[in-house]
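In the previous chapter we treated chains in isolation. Here, by contrast, the input contains three separate entities that must be folded as one system, with a combined length of 1144 residues.
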Amino acid sequence: MSEHETILSLDDLSVRLPRGADRAHALSGVSLDIASDEILCVVGESGSGKSMMANAIMRLLPNEVTIDGGRVMFEGRDLCKASIAEMREVRGAGIAMIFQEPMTALNPLRTIGDQIAEMFSIHTELSKAEIGAKVLALLADVRIPDPKLAAKAYPHELSGGQRQRAMIAMALALDPKLLIADEPTTALDVTTQAQILKLIRDLQQRRRTAVMFITHDFGVVAEIADRVVVMQHGVIVEHGTASDVLHHPQHAYTKQLIAAVPPLNAPPPRALASDNILTITDVSKTYRTGGFLGRGARVTAAVKNVSLNLPRGATLGIVGESGSGKSTLARCIVRLIDPDTGSIVLDGSDWAKMPREEVRRETRHIQMVFQDPFASLNPRRKAAELVAQGPIVHGTPRAKAIADARELFALVGLDPSAGDRYPHEFSGGQRQRIGLARALALNPDVLVADEPVSALDVSVQAQVLKLLAELRTRLGLSIVFITHDLRVAAQICDLVAVMKDGEVVEHGRAAEVFGNPQHPYTRALLDSIPGGEFAREHDTTAV
Amino acid sequence: MRILSLAGRRLAASIPTLVLILIGVFLLLQFAPGDTVDAMMAQMGGGDAATAKELRKFYGLDLSIPAQLGNYLWRLVRLDLGFSSIYGKPVASVILERLPPTILLMTASLSFAFFFGLVFGVIAARGVNRWPDTLISTLGLIFYATPSFWFGLMAIVVFSVYLQWLPPGGFEDIGTVRTGIWRALDIASHLVLPTLTLGLIFLAIYLRIMRASMLEVLNLDYVRTARAKGLDETRVVTRHVLRNALLPMVTLIGLQAGTMLGGSVVVESVFSLPGLGRLAYESVVQRDLNTLLGIVFVSALLVITVNFVVDLIYARLDPRITAEG
Amino acid sequence: MDAVKRYFRSPAAVAGLILLLIVIAMAISAGWFYPRDPLALAGRPLVWPFSNPRFLLGTDNSGRDIAAQIFYGARISLLIGGVATAIAILIGILVGAFAGYYGGWVDNVLMRITEAFQTLPNFVLLLVLVAVFGSTLTTVTIAVGVVSWPAPARLTRAEFLSLRNREFVQAGRTLGMRNIQLIFGEILPNALPPVIVYASVVMAVAILLESALAFLRLSDPNVASWGNLIGLGRDVLRVQWYVSAIPGIAILVTVLAVSLVGQGLNDALNPRLKGR
């Protein structure tokens, strides 16, 4: 590191949380250095204090959260002791920041160009014309198609990837010494993520900016990091070069995190039954939005002529990015949405054409697990009640249903006595188990799981996937598994269908689709997996 | 252009609302004890049944209710609001005479409430939970709880009876003839107390909503972005918070236009202003149902107009509106 | 339980509750302190407050005890405020729930009606209703309730719109629940807290509406209402301003108490938004 100068160094930094928080310090005794010309990845799960560190460096901590020890040395001075006015000069010009969600991080009422131009009007004396030219140059630099148009656009008129590019252009406007990127690709689709990661890497190399990249994803780390810092509960537990940490992790927590990263190679294929429990034929769903008296209505084909089969006892993965129609398809299968055309045959009866009242009565054959463990449980009902609701609706006496629910708790790995608690008293992973128990309470033949693990931390993700795999053999479940994450799909699915713009572009055995992709889109998806090589070579069984 | 067509569409959508109101109120008034002819007879000091019958026939009151409703709506299309037997002239001209004071009063109160609500809301939010906030929020609560007519009466006692600074009522001084600027000043001095009285509760509402929405916007991600850019707090507020925080307040103006017009009934009665609100009160007391129905029509039109303007302003402030089409 | 604790931690909320309890106590004890008809002649007219121990708050233009009218007026204000609020909230919840849950033409029709009610100035509608149905205590109460439901309906609808596509509602549907079960069993309990809090606003407005009506002498003249008394005091405003001033303060205090309690409830039920 001797040939590079240190840009920022944290020295024994501690950040105090307000009374009543789950711990006293968000950060305790954090020390690290970032040199120019390197990307330092800060890795940790939610609550590890990694974002708090970024905000502490910028002195943008929420009220009542205070720095109570240590130093933040930047350009020879301690930012902890800098005045507000001095801090304002550092922000934007010396250290710039980009955030996770570019939609909310940009002011919705002002144009992109206007918001980038503001950087120059705050920190420089440039004329309007000069600023305008610089804005266009920046937008071109982050490779936004048609910079002139983009500068005049409002945030809602751009795509997620373009918005994040605009954020990056804004952050790099004044050639800051350090760029802090707080989970900048987490909210993006995998192909967009790959492009943004590449952009950050390119710009970093061209401009020699130091980058502090905060992420929870070891795939991203493998893709972009020069050095890595691993954080847990506000403490740095391990640091080192990227290859050292990835291949020879020392700390138990690092090992656990790396082990939880799903490897891309599929487990050995299972034998599939010859008969299909679910047959989807030519299902389509079209939405009409907006328009007044039929004028100017936009027609979106969310699902176009999809045909798929689910063999009894198998798991069918439906993989796609946001807007691919995978969730609409899932909701058509359980009839939360009525498909326009096509048939969905479950055990001989066509779900797509069944009247609503019959669907309501027969719904126990096909159940759903939802994505968001916080939104999918009614916050005003106790856990046991939530699980017992289904059987009660279908005529089981209440007392028996509650007793059964407690048994199900044991099945999904929860303490049966937890049934008297409300959802907010459970962690995300536990809630997802409740959701699973609720679906299983009706003894369904088919389980439709809509992104069941994407809202969970990686280590919890692995546990829930393992539970799902156990249950499907034990209960003989057939599963439709919706996910945007190919690594997750590779773990659990026997069959995989790849969706793009409402159509299935490729489907087949998981090992074949991942090992020998035929469609260019599938290949692009696979290539976009962050740290793809790392994911392929690393093996969970090692730990 | 897009903005105009959008607001225009909203305007077109309010026509069924207007028709709904007219039909509803027309039918409602059929339940009223006594009709226009009864009111006229009372005005004339009584009369025999034959005259009444003749009058009813003349005004079309002997027809079936649907036929009367049809007649009424058809006359409305031709902007004929009927005849007021109490005032002895067409309802349209009675209302037209009474409209200016009400519009003046509403505009003044709205401006007063909006401006001070905005300023106090911003001050309170900037010093949240410190003394300026506590003071402003407490005053806001008290203003909100103050009955406007009572505040008006007390203001008359203080400013007109004891201090004798301002006139206790009326629209202008009818004792002396004034013209031009002097007349305007005279009207203005007559409107100070009514404006304060009517605006007080809206001031309280606006400052509360402005404070809440400022606090909400101050917590949003893009405000953090603005701070991370190195903007100072004043510019964070003026450039990134204010316009966004104004949106709920602008919506509220539209929603409460009706409430404000309703408030003017009371305030105009307190200050003896010859406006639409007082006319509404008088026509209820005198059972002048034709005029009452005309007032319902005109006030609904007024509210729709205010909402049209609010839509235009909102679309100017928020580019997302026009995108949704 | 946490909510109760949070409520009592706010001095403003506690002050509001105490004020409200005092008003309620006045309403209950009116007959005990002043067993005679409050509208009956009690003594010399226009006795200033605190000048005669028999009439602590003085007498009005017709020689009736102001203090007695204030006590009995609390009954009327709370009664009309409470019942009208219940009517408005009930209609509002039903309209808002069905409009928000079903969407489509149901929503369209219900919202057109709501819009019609909001486009017509509420006080003007109140005047029309009173003109048609007369000004007895019952008709005035119902009329105030009927003009006050659009705002709670919109609020309930907004809550339903945001809740109806929540995953827990979809989960309920995949479990086979009926629409009515989903509306009243799953969504409504989650939509209720803001509506309950809003009830305090409705009640405050209802009390103000009734008093304004009474002030214009369009409310029931046969009951002791604060608004009636203010209207009466208007005739002697220039000198005996206290006849109007005293009942006005009673209204102010009551409405303030209701608002403070509502705000306290809001902060207690939504701890995330505390201090806003």
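The mean pLDDT of chain B is 87. Chain B touches chain A at residues 9, 220-222, 224-232, 235, 239-240, 243-244, 317-320, 323-325 (CB under 8 Å). Compare these points with the single-chain example from earlier in the chapter.
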